[in-house]
Specification:
mainly alpha; 2 domains; elongated
């Protein structure tokens, strides 16, 4: 069960990044799933289960979650077609395994049928991987060794526990080789107000960001823009139409954002500031509180904040 979960997570993750990019969780998740994954991850962060080591969101996906992603994206489903069982879809198979996982989690005893089914699912899965690996080996240059399929170390397979650090030889099964290449609930978010003691004003923040850009200190740049994001988000919720974002404007006009956008997966920044600008424009045009709330819900503003939190966590901020 652990081998299947770890491997399918990795393959689905690669598929999502291939189809949707590094910010796959914005467009590649069915409604509500991104928020559920974040909630599980936040629970793990609270107990520091991973000693501050960054864990990808996909590490908190259950078999059911993976099935939802596959059903949601036809492109991702195509990427996994090579490892689908012959008798059913891979999403349906994952849901059957999830039913067994839940039974195991509830410490309900497995009967002979449960054991036989799990063994059958596992065998089908390994055979599908072996067929794919053989196909890759047959088309690979002679000097490239074929990967082997080894079982991973013992892992906790509950959906709240990430296993992103577990390595298996199945990692060599590249999504690019599985199928032809492709073109490229609103959660409640607590917005902490920026600290007032010793906080720099906007002109000082811009100057500090310019210095960080010139020196190539991308981490410091992100640290500064993170402070501005928090301040702008607070202003949106407090209906402050005068809050500007000079650091963001400087990063755009200087070219830093365009240079780093793809490499550092910074797209949520652009989406956030665009939404914040539109919220302020609507309020200046006379939108009342209910209209503002409706806009924020329609644009999934709280989801943007969650995606920004995920982005900053990835960069260890």
């Amino acid at each position: 069960m652990a081998e299947i979960l770890v491997t399918v997570r990795r393959i689905v993750h690669r598929g999502l990044e291939k189809v949707f990019g590094k910010t796959w969780y914005l467009d590649g998740c069915p409604p509500g799933l991104f928020e559920r994954l974040v909630e599980r991850k936040e629970n793990e962060i609270a107990i520091n289960r991973f000693d501050d080591e960054y864990q990808e969101l996909i590490s908190f996906a259950s078999f059911d979650d993976l099935a939802e992603i596959i059903d949601f994206s036809e492109d991702v489903a195509k990427l996994l077609a090579a490892i689908a069982p012959k008798s059913t879809s891979i999403a349906d198979r994952l849901r059957k395994i999830e039913a067994l996982r839940l039974k195991l989690a509830a410490t309900a005893p497995f009967d002979d049928t449960d054991i036989d089914n799990l063994l059958e699912y596992h065998q089908d899965f390994r055979e599908a991987l072996a067929r794919r690996i053989k196909k890759l080996d047959d088309t690979a240059p002679a000097h490239v060794p074929a990967p082997t399929v080894d079982k991973p170390a013992t892992v906790d397979i509950s959906p709240g526990h990430g296993v992103g650090s577990q390595e298996t030889a199945v990692d060599e099964l590249r999504v690019e080789d599985v199928a032809p290449s492709l073109e490229h609930t609103t959660a409640v978010v607590e917005v902490e107000p920026p600290a007032s003691n010793g906080q720099m004003d906007d002109s000082e923040e811009v100057l500090a960001a310019e210095r960080a850009v010139v020196s190539g200190d991308d981490v410091e740049v992100l640290r500064i823009i993170h402070r501005e994001v928090m301040s702008v988000a607070e202003a949106v919720y407090q209906r402050d139409v005068d809050r500007t974002h000079p650091v963001w404007e400087m990063l755009r006009t200087s070219g830093w954002y365009d240079l780093k956008k793809a490499e550092m997966a910074l797209a949520p920044l652009e989406d956030f500031f665009s939404a914040a600008d539109e919220a302020q424009n609507r309020q200046r045009s006379g939108a009342d509180l209910d209209e503002l709330k409706t806009y924020l819900e329609e644009t999934e503003f709280s989801k943007l904040l969650l995606s920004l939190r995920e982005m900053f966590l990835r960069h260890k901020l």
